[in-house]
## 1
Amino acid sequence: MGNSSKMEAGTFRHEHWSSRLGFILAATGSAVGLGNIWKFPYVTGENGGGAFVLVYLACIALVGLPIMMAEVLIGRRGQRSPIHSMRLVAGQEGAWSGWQIVGWFGVVAGFIILSFYSVIAGWSLAYIFEAASGAFVAADAKTIGAIFGGLLDSPGRLLFWHTVFISMTVFVVAGGVRAGLERAVSILMPTFFLLMLALVGYAAIATDTFGQGVAFLFSPDFSKLSGETVLVAMGQAFFSLSLGMGVMLAYGSYLPQSVSIGRSVFAICVADTSVALIAGLAIFPLVFTYGLEPGAGPGLVFQTLPLALGHLGGGVFFGTLFFVLLVVAGWTSSISILEPTVQWVEERFGIRRVTTAVLAGVAAWLLGLLTVFSFNLWSEFKIWDKTLFELLDYLTSNIMLPLGGLLFALFAGWIMAKSSTRQELGADCRGKDSRSFILWRFLVRYVSPVGIGLVMLHSLGLITLTG
Ligand code: TRP
């Protein structure tokens, strides 16, 4: 691999977040997205509810949180894009420079994720206009189903909105993360949070199935668990926290040295998990009220919420607002997916962000055609019983991200010297390790790698964990 002159010169300087809050907001903007509002409810529904949620929460605490800390600390130490940070830090630690392959792997995963993420965000864009036009007012389940089906059946409409969304993403990334992102996130994320809470309030007051929704989410039925559902829960944790492909390395590289990684990461994980649970609390009561199927799949949110909002005073306003905010949440996430690649090209070749962002956007757009057609023209085309969209999602969320996370964990836990990670985590109280540092190191060295390894081997059928 050739050397980047800019990087080797050792004078590479780039912008930093303006504050600890800037980082938290941007990383939360990355984490909170369609994964929380669209994906979490439908995969929970497909996998039987409570037991799945419990495994998901365990994955967040035991695997997601320590790995997010690992990613951020590697990024801050390297001060560069994931590929370069991995190479540089490996060099500093006297380890094999081939560790940068994990960064490459992340770039590939990022393209695949962005390609389908943009198509789904495109649905949300389309729904802003459906909601605003009053299409959902007093509509019954059949009408709402037909609106959703009509959108999926039309490659032209999907393509149009996919194009709009990719362009929005490219636009912000081209402008640089700080200027583009911090501002958008700091106002819109709190608004979104409040609107979601209002929807839970609505579900609690206006339906008599709130208890049923809560029970579905929180009372575990372990007979619904299998190796496969555990893998999906773990994949969902990675996807939702934006882990395993280097996003948090990229964002960590913009983090000022003075900020506590542990506390920031904790806040991000709590925010992300709360939004997912709140989305579930808003949606499942509605699913039961309207007699829908919890396992209805990717259309779940796009059918339940319009139904409920259509029967609500001010539904046109709140419905429109909901989809606007959903688009914004998806937007701050899609930006983060593209960032590592653009950051790398900028460092490596000194090419302007605008150029790279456009080219990368075109590549992801093209790949997105597979997802667009998987809902209509090619819906019968299946590999391993999965449509192309399902396959890309499965491959990235459940395989590539956990594998990437495993490697980041091994790198931070075993390759980096204890003193290096201790220095980044700022846990050195006069030569004595703090309890949280000891816990982190235990999680990242043993618990996360072994957990990921067992779940993956089991779901690939290579080992059997239960009966
Ligand atoms: N976490 C985002 C969401 O929940 C999606 C996302 C952003 C992501 N960056 C990522 C997923 C990196 C995996 C990897 O919608």
Note: The CA atoms of residues 285 and 466 lie 33 Å apart.
## 2
Amino acid sequence: MRVAFLAAECEPWAKTGGLADVVDALARALGQVGGAGRGGPLDGPVDVFLPRYRSVPVPASAVTRQLQVPDPRGSGVLTVGLVETETHGYRLRLVDHPPAFDREGLYGDAAGDYPDNAWRFGLFCRAALEALRTDPAPPDVLHLHDWHAAPAVLLRDGLLRSDRAIGAAAVLLTVHNLAYHGWPPAARVPDLGLGAGAVAPDADGLDLLAAGIERAELVNTVSPGFAAEARTPAYGMGLDEHLRAKGDRFFGILNGLDTDLWDPATDSALSAPYSRADRSGKASCRAALLTELGMDAGNSAPLLAMIGRLDPQKGFDLLSEAAPDLLELGFRLAVLGSGTADHVGPLRRLAAERGDRVALLERFDRDLARRLYAGADGFLMPSRFEPCGTGQMIALRYGTPPIVRATGGLRDTVVDAVTDPANGTGFWFEEPTAAALVQACDRFMDWFAPGAPRWEGLLDRGMAVDFDWRTRSAPAYLEAYRRTIEIRSLR
Ligand code: ADP
């Protein structure tokens, strides 16, 4: 089986959120459990196609060749660099076309999304498929990630349907975030390069994710819990009908966590390593973090951390609203957020007035994130919806009990300690309100007692959860690949 990923993000080269973590970790884990070269189902390492954005450092080992790619926007041909290297257990294949990708942001800048994203991602997909056409063996599976890769299945079924290498490939589309459909306005749809009449945009343009869902043999999202929710109008983001129509060809595979990259025993960003067997270093991490944040390291008041994109999805507004009550309950808060800061105004004021209790760090900071996962006493994820979520898994592995809204993947990965004390790993709340968040934090406070068996048991169970991609998630994807090939062969 030959598998090619098309994705807009991949850690450590280009990341705005969990998509990057998943693409990298899954590609790597597949190489390990798929037995590439060792008699397993994979013929070789997975290919990962990624745009070469300005921020992507080209690995020293990379080899570049030039491809001639039809310009999605017209009749001409563009010269596109294909920068390839085998690294991290997969084959990274960067699509390099500076006019499209050598820009400040991945998807846009301070002014918003780039208006020519249809062209940029149409070109990305076409270039990836052209690269695959030049390979000695055709791909069996195109594993498309989110809307940015959806044009590839439209090309397979349109302009390239008779192509020997691409026309027969089976498609698995993974929806990491159902909120982003990639919706070019009708006037921009021709820039995708799909060919005349391939798709019929309506007055609002083209819902690329919807089109991809329709065409892909199989569609999954990143947790069973969210797969169930996504079929309902409340969570389906306008696609619930499309997803219901897929029947059992739409399902959830819970994301794993890269347990080598996220390991408090080897994490070089931490001031002291620690592990499930010996958690003593966690206290040093806590003290160092509080000092770094300008807070009193000798004070036992619990520190709650929140990390994420400043997106309405993540519930920063709920935390902003809840913050005064949380201070009243005796908590301290550290918030690391990147992106557009519409929802953190009240937190900014609070951080300015109460710097001894509230820290707001408005940036993307990999190492600080690690120190927060390790040094905080609790981790907040008050998401309105959450296809899977990575932060809560990292927090569990770092012995920091998560307080989560019981939705999607958060419900699938965190066990509520209040309703299930023997198995609990964190704390749930149901309603997306500040009041419900405060109540959950109150329940956390009731449990919070470092050194006490009940508290230490909670941390221990969280650290013991096996999220390793190799255990369940990567084998589940291999099974999905087999199934999508079978469905494609029946066409
Ligand atoms: P999403 O994919 O919706 O953004 P996830 O919880 O799945 O959310 O993944 C978020 C990932 O990005 C986690 O690894 C988290 O630590 C990281 N992250 C998010 N925001 C920041 C930030 N401001 N600084 C550092 N890391 C961040």
Note: The longest strand covers residues 77-87.
